[in-house]
């Protein structure tokens, strides 16, 4: 996505505002004509530009929404629920006017809600119907609609660059007839995006929807069309069938299914539907009908890919119960083609596994192999059971019959536990173990690995169990939280394999307890006992007391005071004495080991994390969110608790004499027309009066928005005739990132080598550095750098923070050297 602050991207948007909607090729040509680059580059820009004010019309043109929507009015008819809750159902009446992000000033303070994502807000407002609203909603103040009645109209207007919601007091304008216009945009055979269609109508008719009139949903219905979610289609269109077809196309692509295999999955889902929804007294006849009509179509389920897709769709999408899956498997086995018998047994085995019936599941998988000795899914399932038993030989033997199985992580792990023969012993020699028995009758062909060595294998067995389909929604939810601060497009994919995510699913979410309960009968006795010990071991915060690089660590559990001698080769080369981290430290035979990753903990986080770990009310999502906060960009706050934002405004001043007097009265005497707003020795803002060529200007600067608003109010009170010419608000983290990466804003149209500009940048950053020394820094546990420099227990954390800054001074960038000097470091 193109950076919307890129000057070329902003120039592209300016072209759309000036010329109206444009096709991408024409848009690119106009950019070239105005000197913005080569045609190929501009074609790429117009193809991939991502701007919050960019919209796409039904005919393929791109539009600047702030220009297109200016002056447009959409209405909505109120319901009792909306009035009482202060929440408006935005779909479809108001949707085309809601393209802006909640944080966009154009949103006018309106917040968009969605079911599932904002259920807590709906519950708080008394909107308890889980099916209402079906799509987006607008959150208002709780009493915003007080005094209105069901059926009254409210109007949402985009005017002056801001969305505003008001009661539609005037009689509504005559309703426009959209029939002819929609006929040319919405075909009979497929739906179209509602926003793009309505934006197209607005672009074609500048007078359309510029005054309160009949709600959009009613206009669409009157024209012979219907809306569903974000889409519009001709009346009578089967949205459910269309979504089902689109979904199956996605499933087919994901599982590499042929048309026949896709058809077989659909037939299976039809069988599932009959079994789930048909009354008991009619079910047998309905199943007979499905078997008669779909019998031949089931043949495609013989392929493992189709079987996997059928099971996943039935269980995860259709939410079929295990009894239904068993019944469906029986129908396939008894009435389907013989070639799908392995699939039938495998499906019955999956249902048994979901119920925790391990022995039954294993029997079904063995029956599948009895019919087809090379059926992949049964081979893989039985290999997992063999691994659980500690039988690496059988597990490897089964996996060797599956194409490509050698690439799986489990395969490499199993290889390390295969038995190794002793070439120095004959078959009839005394066994090396001291049992007195012959080698051939004792350890020939068997492996003897200590519990310490097998601990990692046990953890992998449980991890494989926690990858099962019933745990995937939890894995996905926690992975989304883990990756939220990562802009990598593959971040979510990688987070699914994150050690913390997997470990939390196993322990905090209960997968490990289920594994022990259901698979414990397969585990070797000593591994079962070890697994039960692990179930009693809690995640905790540990301090590193000693380090033996490449060997291990001595740790102190901060919560209990217990000390552990831990065998840990990798982390012992990276951690230092005095470091703190969160992990699960568990017994492993004669040693203690760490599984599930090591999460470094800053000093300021320790107390809150310990509270989370001690509380029974902490949910897994909250824990992962806390431990993932270290990946977030730095969030700087001022001593009064507000986010640090570099704010600047420039006023043209009408009365310099009066404003000097009034500002001095408010902020104290000026120093060469410069007023400094201070409280308790902290600088809260600066005002500077300067003379340009033909006018006086006053520059106001502050480091958070409430202070900035106070400065603006003070200037306006001091000079009511003054004119606010410009203002900027840049989050401090963004400002620091820009200056540290480039020495100046990457796109600012100035030369940082210019002596005058360099001096200005230097002055600005030095003022900011002085403020930073007394700001509460989250990375320092909410303490200021000065406080940490004076506190021996926090000084190391401050030094690490300064070490993370660029060490070479750059124009406009904070200087780690100056900061160290100021702090006495």
Fold and architecture overview:
The chain is an alpha+beta fold and 825 residues long. Helix content is 44%, strand content 15%. Helix 16 crosses helix 17.
Topology of helices and strands:
Layout: H1 7-19, H2 24-33, H3 39-48, E1 54-56, E2 62-64, H4 65-68, E3 73-77, H5 80-85, E4 87-89, E5 111-114, H6 119-124, E6 136-139, E7 153-159, E8 162-167, H7 179-183, E9 192-193, H8 194-204, H9 216-222, E10 225-228, E11 231-234, H10 239-255, H11 259-277, H12 280-294, H13 304-317, H14 322-335, H15 341-354, H16 358-371, H17 376-389, H18 392-399, H19 409-415, H20 451-465, H21 472-482, H22 491-495, H23 499-506, H24 511-519, H25 525-535, E12 540-548, E13 552-557, E14 563-567, E15 580-588, E16 591-600, H26 606-614, H27 620-628, E17 645-653, H28 656-667, E18 674-679, E19 682-691, E20 696-702, H29 705-718, E21 723-731, H30 732-742, H31 755-772, H32 785-790, H33 795-803, H34 816-823
Antiparallel strand pairs: 1-2, 3-7, 4-6, 5-6, 7-8, 9-11, 10-11, 12-13, 12-15, 13-14, 15-16, 17-20, 17-21, 18-19, 19-20
Helix pairs in contact: 1-2, 2-3, 10-11, 11-12, 11-13, 11-14, 14-15, 15-16, 16-17, 17-18, 20-25, 21-27
Percent strand:
15-25%
How many angstroms separate the termini? 42 Å
SSE-based structural type: alpha+beta
Largest sheet descriptor: 5 strands, antiparallel
Q: Can you count the helices?
A: 34
Gross morphology is flat
* Alpha carbon gyration radius: 34 Å
Poorly predicted ranges: 1-5, 743-754
- Number of strand elements: 21
Roughly what percent helix? 40-55%
Question: Main sheet: which strands, in order across?
Answer: 14-13-12-15-16
Oligomer: single chain
Q: Indicate the mean pLDDT.
A: 86
């Amino acid at each position: 996505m193109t950076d919307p602050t890129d000057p070329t991207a902003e120039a592209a948007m300016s072209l759309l505002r000036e010329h109206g909607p444009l096709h991408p090729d024409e848009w690119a040509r106009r950019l070239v004509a105005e000197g913005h680059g080569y045609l190929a580059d501009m074609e790429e820009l117009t193809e991939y530009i991502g701007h919050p004010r960019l919209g796409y019309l039904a005919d393929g043109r791109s539009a600047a929404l702030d220009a297109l929507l200016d002056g447009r009015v959409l209405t909505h008819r109120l319901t009792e629920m909306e009035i009482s809750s202060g929440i408006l159902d935005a779909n479809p009446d108001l949707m085309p006017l809601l393209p802006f992000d909640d944080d966009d000033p154009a949103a006018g303070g309106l917040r968009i809600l969605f079911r599932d994502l904002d259920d807590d807000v709906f519950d708080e407002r008394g909107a308890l119907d889980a099916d209402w609203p079906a799509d987006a909603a607008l959150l208002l103040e709780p009493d915003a609609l007080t005094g209105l009645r069901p059926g009254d109209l409210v109007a949402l207007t985009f005017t002056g660059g801001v969305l505003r919601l008001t009661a539609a007091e005037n009689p509504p304008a005559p309703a426009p007839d959209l029939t002819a216009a929609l006929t040319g945009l919405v075909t009979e055979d497929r739906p179209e995006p509602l926003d793009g269609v309505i934006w197209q109508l607005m672009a074609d008719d500048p007078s359309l929807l510029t005054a309160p009139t009949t709600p959009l949903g009613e206009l669409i219905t009157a024209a012979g069309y219907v809306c569903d979610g974000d889409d519009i289609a001709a009346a009578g269109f089967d949205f459910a069938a269309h979504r089902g077809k689109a979904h199956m196309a996605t499933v087919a692509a994901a599982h590499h299914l042929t048309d026949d295999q896709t058809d077989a999955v659909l037939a299976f889902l039809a069988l599932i539907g009959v079994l789930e929804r048909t009354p008991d007294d009619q079910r047998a006849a309905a199943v007979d009908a499905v078997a008669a009509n779909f019998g031949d179509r089931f043949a495609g389920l013989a392929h493992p890919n189709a079987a996997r897709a059928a099971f996943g769709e039935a269980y995860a999408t259709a939410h079929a119960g295990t009894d239904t899956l068993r019944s469906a498997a029986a129908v396939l086995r008894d009435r389907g083609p013989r070639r799908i018998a392995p699939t039938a047994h495998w499906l019955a085995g999956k249902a048994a596994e979901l119920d925790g019936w391990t022995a039954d599941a294993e029997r079904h998988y063995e029956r599948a192999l009895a019919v087809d000795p090379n059926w992949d899914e049964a081979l893989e399932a039985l290999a997992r059971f063999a691994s659980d038993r500690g039988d690496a030989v059988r597990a490897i033997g089964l996996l060797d019959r599956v194409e490509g199985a050698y690439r799986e992580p489990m395969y490499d792990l199993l290889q390390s536990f295969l038995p190794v023969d002793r070439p120095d012993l004959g078959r009839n020699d005394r066994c090396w173990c001291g049992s007195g028995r012959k080698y051939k009758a004792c350890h020939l062909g068997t492996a003897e690995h200590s519990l310490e060595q097998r601990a990692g294998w046990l953890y992998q067995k449980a991890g494989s169990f926690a990858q099962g389909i019933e745990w995937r929604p939890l894995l996905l939810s926690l992975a989304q939280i883990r990756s939220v601060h990562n802009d990598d497009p593959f971040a979510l994919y990688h987070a699914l394999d994150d050690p913390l995510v997997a470990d939390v699913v196993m322990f905090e979410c209960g997968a490990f307890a289920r594994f022990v309960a259901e698979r414990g009968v397969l585990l070797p006795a000593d591994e079962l006992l070890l697994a039960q010990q692990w179930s009693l071991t809690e995640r905790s915060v540990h301090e590193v007391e000693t380090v033996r690089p490449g060997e291990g660590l001595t740790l102190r559990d901060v919560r209990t005071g217990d000390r552990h001698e831990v065998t840990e080769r990798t982390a012992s080369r990276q951690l230092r004495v005095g470091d703190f981290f969160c992990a699960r430290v568990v017994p492993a035979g004669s040693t203690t080991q760490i599984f599930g990753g090591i999460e470094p903990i800053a000093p300021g986080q320790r107390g809150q994390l310990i509270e989370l770990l001690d509380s029974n009310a902490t949910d897994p999502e909250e824990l992962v969110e806390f431990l993932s906060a270290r990946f977030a960009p730095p969030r700087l706050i001022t001593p009064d608790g507000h986010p640090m934002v570099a704010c600047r405004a420039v006023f043209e001043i009408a009365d310099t004499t009066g404003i000097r007097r009034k500002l001095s009265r408010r902020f104290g005497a000026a120093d060469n027309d410069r007023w400094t707003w201070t409280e308790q020795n902290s600088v809260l803002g600066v005002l500077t009066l300067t003379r340009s060529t033909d006018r006086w200007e006053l520059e106001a600067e502050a480091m958070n928005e409430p202070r900035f608003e106070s400065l603006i109010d003070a200037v306006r009170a001091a000079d009511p005739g003054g004119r606010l010419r410009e203002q900027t608000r840049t989050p401090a983290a963004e400002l620091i990132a820009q200056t540290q990466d480039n020495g100046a804003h990457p796109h600012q149209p100035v030369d940082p080598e210019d002596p005058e500009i360099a001096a200005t940048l230097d002055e600005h950053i030095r003022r900011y550095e002085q403020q930073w020394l007394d700001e509460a820094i989250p990375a320092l546990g909410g303490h200021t750098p000065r406080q940490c420099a004076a506190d021996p227990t926090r000084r190391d954390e401050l030094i690490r923070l300064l070490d993370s800054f660029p060490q070479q001074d750059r124009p406009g960038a904070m200087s780690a050297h100056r900061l160290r000097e100021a702090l006495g470091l």
